[in-house]
Specification:
alpha+beta; 6hp_glycosidase-like_sf; Ssp411-like_TRX; 755 residues; Spermatogenesis-associated protein 20-like TRX domain-containing protein; Thioredoxin-like_sf
């Protein structure tokens, strides 16, 4: 469990204190003592802008954002800049992780107008919140022919004074155009025949064309670990294999394997502490931007689990453990909640006021020698550690010599080759490496830590709940006696299920209102003011479905069904199809968007289609038809996107194909719970990779379960009753309205599912 000290702002006196000091968000608290007179997003700020008749300066970022820190130091801590902002504007600071709805409106505007975006996001608004102009990071002074922040402030002030009407009219027009473009309606009730299959094929081809055969990944530097791309390639590969196109299937799987292996060996992977950094600045996955985000960890653990279930190679199961053990060690709170992120920047030593990117994670050759003694040479050769520093593999790795003399650990040779070179068995070599990493971890733990953003976000917890739940059973496929080395703990995989259940329980207790059936978006020292958004519902429902299917209580499945009902009520466009990203109840949010882009995180609409397909295979026919209808209408909204730019929506391509599959496979397990036999059968049900499979498990002796299934799906309740035996667990595999004869041992079930 993570040990962390809650951030406080009262431990020393400050020259300046603004309204952000009363907020809970770590990002807002970081700015609570700027000379800028910041307001949080809300009516108080809007009213002040109207009263003074001045524009609003809106700054959006997040607590682990490197360039947000830079702009704070250069501009928001500067008295001269603060005077301009305080005299001419009302300044509002927003944490994008706390208010993704606000961020979406103005990021969409900046991207549409200027062709790019990012954080910090800097936007000027009229008092009625219409955007006037915007950008991202601005240096404080004019440089390289580009205007600095002070110049921008003066120009906006002059434009407001001299041509306000034109500015406001232009902003209003931009919002109207964006609103129309981003809330499109379905032309048909469902996608035309063949579109899902063509979109899946097109996306796979486009990704294959962008594949880096040397270093893995899709596209060039900077390289982001976009797990939805891996998910699509795995899904498409499986589809090719099932239809007899084994060469194409192997080619797609090979791209995934190369990518995941290069990432695991690269510096984007924290070899000493586990988990993955945000992205690599170079093409070889070596030098990262060092922040660690929960949404990456949850998704990456899942794709490593998927590849393990296909290849049975312990390398991939070890990597999923590496990520999940990092989360358990560093990112889980006292009540099971899972925190959001760790910063890239930290002080090099205690007492330093200036933070540096990567300071916590990088090493000099001398430091490694001091800590590791006799094993230093072996470790240095294995991880490419050099006295001059090792950030030299690409011209993009360290263009400004920030890491001169420093090393970001990377594995460039195979373990077996290195063990042979040092004349020892592979197992002994791995033992030494693990011991070395443990020693470095202990030394590193004494360094000033990067800031921990201990905000709890429902959507990101949903992604992590999924990976912990899936690991609990999929990892049972590891060979008996498999050895693990630090930072992998090698614990019983069932412990991962406990982590998933505790995280789900925390959300239900602290971020769910049982009277209204609604979620709140985030928690820190209490629930945030922001309501739950589409991603919160969709990602949590997905996690709860995994919790149930991987062996936890039917209680979670019942909650998932309730949340889906509430999601439909709050976000579904009942006329035009698809889900909006917000409930549409906040007048300060000028855009209500139907998001489709599967980026660093999947889109709420893509995840929702998969949820609806899964739910449809669990409930009785009338409810099932409703779920499928909503999924069909949703996909019809994005018909053009699927046809023209499939690569932007890889998970939606998978979802569309899943919905088009004529009959989803159902694995029904019946028997007494809990028992070792039941766990073994569950593990067998999940042993192979198959996205078009639903696992249902029922103990007819359990009153809660029996009652749930009698109400939710009478046929399932009857099947369980008719196949229940007091002394054994049986499994039936059902598809196309027929079921196999029951089997009662794991090997038979695995064999049945492999056909």
């Amino acid at each position: 469990m993570a040990e962390h000290t809650p951030e406080t702002t009262s431990s020393k006196t400050h020259k300046h204190t603004n309204r952000l000091a009363a907020e809970h968000s770590p990002y807002l608290l970081q700015h609570a003592h700027n000379p800028v007179d910041w307001y949080p997003w809300g009516e108080e700020a809007f009213a002040e802008a109207r009263r003074r008749d001045v524009p609003i300066f809106l700054s959006i970022g997040y607590s682990t954002c490197h360039w947000c820190h830079v702009m704070e130091v250069e501009s928001f801590e500067c008295e001269d800049v603060a005077k301009l902002l305080n005299d001419w504007f009302v300044s509002i600071k927003v944490d994008r992780e706390e208010r993704p709805d606000v961020d979406k409106v103005y990021m969409t505007y900046v991207q549409a107008l200027y062709g790019g975006g990012g954080w910090p996001l800097s936007v000027f608004l009229s008092p009625d919140l219409k955007p006037l102009m915007g950008g991202t990071y601005f240096p404080p002074d004019d440089k390289y022919g580009r205007p600095g922040f002070k110049t921008i402030l003066r120009k906006v002030k002059e434009a407001w004074d001299s041509k306000r009407d034109v500015l406001v009219q232009s902003g209003s027009f931009a919002i109207e155009q964006l609103s129309e473009a981003l809330s499109t309606s379905a032309r048909l009730d469902k996608l035309p025949d063949g579109v899902p299959q063509k979109a899946l094929k097109l996306c796979a081809e486009q990704l294959a064309d962008s594949f880096d055969s040397k270093y893995g990944g899709f596209g060039s530097a900077p390289k982001f670990p976009r797990p939805v791309e891996v998910q699509l390639m795995l899904y498409h590969s499986k589809k090719l294999k099932v239809t007899g196109k084994s060469d194409g299937a192997k080619e797609g799987l090979s791209m995934v394997i190369i990518t995941l292996e290069c990432m695991a060996r690269g510096g984007i992977h924290d070899h000493v502490g586990g988990g993955f950094h945000r992205y690599s600045v170079d093409e070889c996955w070596h030098v990262p931007h060092f922040e660690k985000m929960l949404y990456d960890q949850g998704q990456l653990a899942n794709v490593y689990l998927d590849v393990f279930s296909i290849t049975k190679d312990v390398f991939y199961s070890t990597m999923s453990r590496d990520i999940l053990d990092y989360l358990r060690r560093e990112m889980i709170g006292p009540n099971g909640e899972i925190f959001s992120a760790e910063d890239a920047d930290s002080a090099e030593s205690e007492g330093d006021t200036r933070k540096k990117e990567g300071a916590f994670y990088i090493w000099t050759s001398h430091e490694v020698e001091d800590v590791l003694g006799e094993h230093a040479n072996l470790f240095k050769e294995h991880y490419y550690v050099k006295p001059s520093g090792n950030c030299d593999l690409s011209r993009m790795s360290d263009p400004h010599n920030e890491f001169k003399g420093k090393n970001v650990l990377i594995e460039r040779n195979s373990t077996s080759a290195m063990a042979s070179k040092f004349g020892m068995p592979v197992e002994k070599y791995l033992d030494i490496l693990g011991m070395c990493r443990q020693k470095l971890f202990d030394v590193r733990s004494k360094r000033p830590r990067p800031h921990l953003d201990d905000k709890v976000i429902v959507s990101w917890n949903g992604l992590a709940i999924s990976s912990f739940a899936r690991a609990s059973k999929i990892l049972k496929g590891e060979p008996e006696g498999a050895k693990f080395y630090f930072p992998v703990a090698g614990t019983n995989s069932e412990e991962y299920m406990e982590v998933a259940e505790r995280a789900a329980s925390f959300i239900r207790k602290n971020l769910y209102n049982q009277q209204t059936g609604r979620l709140q978006h985030s928690f820190r020292n209490g629930a945030s003011k922001a309501p739950g958004f589409l991603d919160d519902y969709a990602f949590l429902i997905s996690g709860l479905l995994d919790l149930y299917e991987l062996g936890s209580s039917v209680f979670w499945l019942a909650w998932a069904i309730e949340l889906q009902h509430k999601q439909d009520e709050l976000f579904l466009d009942k006329e035009g199809g698809g889900y909006f990203n917000t409930p549409g109840e906040d007048p300060s949010i000028l855009l209500r968007v139907k998001e489709d882009h599967d980026g660093a995180e999947p889109s709420g609409n893509s995840v929702s289609v998969i949820n609806l397909v899964r739910l449809a295979s669990l409930v009785s026919s009338s409810k099932s038809d409703n779920y499928r209808h909503n999924a069909e209408r949703l996909l019809a909204v994005f018909e053009k996107r699927l046809k023209d730019t499939a690569m932007a929506v890889p998970l939606m391509c998978c979802a569309a194909d899943m919905l088009a599959v004529p009959s989803r496979k159902q694995v029904v397990l019946v028997g007494r719970k809990p028992s070792a036999e039941f766990d073994s059968m569950l593990a067998a049900a999940h042993a192979s990779y198959d996205s078009n499979r639903t696992v249902i498990h029922i103990d007819p002796n359990d009153d809660e379960e029996r009652g749930f299934w009698e109400e939710t799906n009478e046929n399932m309740a009857l099947m369980a009753k008719n196949n229940f035996g007091a002394d054994k667990v049986v499994a039936l595999v059902c598809q196309n309205f027929t079921c196999s004869p029951p089997v009662d041992n794991p090997k038979s079930l695995e064999s049945l599912l492999s056909k």
